[in-house]
Design brief:
Structural class: alpha/beta
Distance between the termini: 13 Å
Helix content: 25-40%
Shape: globular
Oligomer: single chain
């Protein structure tokens, strides 16, 4: 059996100009990065602004196992399948972060015969967007520390610096550090830390910015610190937002690549859904909607994280209205939610599957709460038994949620044609029905918004704020951030804030340990549980299995 990277290496890629031509685009619309990658330029974005939108399909999932359940694979396979049944479709995905690539999860370009290519480039440095975001963020950090060194005219309190440096790699040793040691010439000593690039506010800003002017304005609004007399200091006060915008000028444009079957795919931006808002860029989604009849996009992790943030944050920011939600489920993830250890998931266990299927029921219920039709995509793995599949098909009938069995990993687009037809039919049945509604009103208080998320999505009994979180909340409200949407940082493995509580936890309270404003991005972040914005590497990192052969072939990349 071929690995993902071997399948990708054997693919016959089309020139990216031919892929663009399928969307009615010419070479003047592209900024080429070799033969098989391109950025879609700003002139194209502006020229399409008045064209009507196609249908928007959001792909999300149930709570996963630590290994992931193939949501990106289903997204890619659905895009390929739509092309196979004669529909003009574009996939809009996030860019992979090097953290998971070299950590535990591996690549993020799909898998098997449902991948975007060139897979090696995409999973490694791609077009440099991650590095541009890292550079812009760290420039702001460097200028802030230089300001402290050069007299601190703004009166910044070094104990109240909110900004963190970032890097696109898992490195737990950098979570909490001290900078400025070694004498006066090395700066002002203070506590600092790193977060992973995809958790940075600059990443969130890039993914929600409308254009270059909006990008600049959002960068200016980044809240970086407080003064000794507790007054806010913003990025604009440090005079470096022009240079940050310069670093991001190319990164702002979405990337065009292709699937294994030559269908178009936009990949742009990559915030994680457990520590950020978990969606690809608004610009890429908008472009896709103008270029195709169907745009298939995904939101990270389960619907309690990525989908909720997509629907409550991104859709508000971009005035987007999804036509359908595809909920990816797997037998093994539901058995995991039924209490089966990861190492035993391959063995048939109908009893555990029935127990864990409450998780699927809850996600269907949650998504319908937004007023959207839900289609279940049962992503089949080789070890799934007929008895186990029958349990989930019965559940679909009970919940009246249409279900399609997908085998896109093994069969590519051909393994997703049933799903593609079901999605098209579901959209046709609901066409013209304006039923989408966010979970809460922006006018609600931050506490009320979080209470709505906790009780309606996580099914908690309520929310408990620690003393430090309450102090941060009062400060945010005083600064005028009470009308922003809320982005919850939470474990992806449970509907609750405790990763060990699987299925549909009951009788728990969501605990908020801190909150802060991503003022430039336009949301308030609530930190729950022990979630970290800088992940660590596992005992055996995926990087230890990777290498490059003498002939230039990459091995071990997922």
């Amino acid at each position: 059996m071929l690995t993902d990277v071997e399948i990708a290496q054997n693919a016959q890629m089309l020139p990216i100009t031919e892929v663009a031509a399928k969307l009615g685009l010419c070479e003047d619309d592209l900024e080429l990065y070799g033969k098989h990658k391109a950025k879609l330029n700003d002139q194209l974005y502006k020229s399409l602004s008045k064209k009507p939108d196609g249908k928007l399909v959001l792909v999300t999932a149930i709570n996963p196992t630590p290994a992931g359940e193939g949501k990106t694979t289903v997204t890619v396979g659905l895009g390929q399948a739509l092309q196979r049944i004669g529909q003009r479709a574009v996939i809009a995905l996030r860019e992979p972060s090097l953290g998971p690539v070299f950590g535990i999860k591996g690549g993020a370009a799909g898998g098997g015969y449902a991948q975007v290519i060139p897979m090696e480039d995409i999973n490694l440095h791609f077009t440099g967007d991650m590095h541009a975001i890292t550079a812009a963020n760290n420039l702001l950090c460097a200028v802030l520390d230089n300001h402290l060194q050069q007299g601190n005219a703004l009166g910044i309190d070094p104990r109240q610096v909110l900004l963190k440096r970032c890097m696109d790699m898992n490195d737990r040793a950098l979570r909490d550090i001290t900078v400025g040691l070694g004498g006066r010439l090395n700066g002002v000593p203070r506590e600092d830390g790193f977060q992973i690039t995809v958790a940075s506010e600059v990443m969130a800003i890039l993914c929600l910015a409308n254009d270059r002017a909006d990008l600049r304005q959002r960068l200016e609004r980044i809240l970086v610190a407080f003064t000794y007399d507790n007054q806010p200091v913003y990025a604009r006060d440090l005079g470096v937002c022009g240079a940050m915008t310069l670093l991001l000028k190319d990164a702002l444009n979405p990337n065009l690549v292709q699937t294994l079957e030559g269908s178009p795919a936009l990949m742009h931006g990559g915030p994680f859904a457990n520590i950020a808002h978990g969606c690809n860029s608004l610009r890429a989604t908008r472009l896709a909607l103008k270029l195709a009849d169907y745009t298939v996009t995904e939101a990270g992790f389960g619907s309690d994280l990525g989908a909720e943030k997509f629907l409550d944050i991104k859709c508000r920011a971009g005035n987007l209205k999804p036509s359908c939600v595809v909920l990816v489920a797997t037998v093994r993830a539901l058995k995991y939610n039924g209490g089966v250890p990861k190492v035993d998931l391959a063995a048939e266990n109908v009893e555990a599957l029935r127990k864990g299927s409450v998780n699927l029921r809850t996600h269907i219920e949650n998504l319908r709460g937004f007023g959207l039709p839900v289609v279940v995509a049962l992503n089949r793995f080789a070890g799934d038994s007929d008895a186990e599949l029958a349990v989930l098909q019965e559940l679909a009938r009970e919940t009246k949620a249409p279900l399609a069995l997908t085998e896109v990993f093994a069969k590519g687009g051909a393994g997703g044609e049933e799903l593609a037809r079901l999605v098209c039919e579901t959209i046709r049945q609901h066409d013209g029905a304006d039923t989408f509604r966010p979970l809460y009103a922006l006018e609600d208080s931050i506490e009320a918004k979080l209470h709505s998320i906790a009780t309606k999505i996580y099914h908690a009994d309520g929310v408990q704020w620690t003393a430090s979180a309450q102090k941060s909340l009062r400060r945010l409200e005083t600064l005028g951030y009470g009308n922003l949407p809320v982005c919850v940082a939470k474990t992806q493995y449970s509907l609750s804030d405790d990763p060990t509580k699987l299925g549909r936890p009951e009788g728990f309270t969501l605990t908020v340990r801190d909150c802060y404003a991503s003022a430039g991005a336009g949301f308030v972040v609530a930190l729950t549980g022990d979630i970290m914005t800088m992940p660590g590497l596992p005992k055996e990192p995926a990087a230890c299995r990777m290498d490059i052969a003498d002939d230039g072939n990459i091995v071990g990349l997922f």
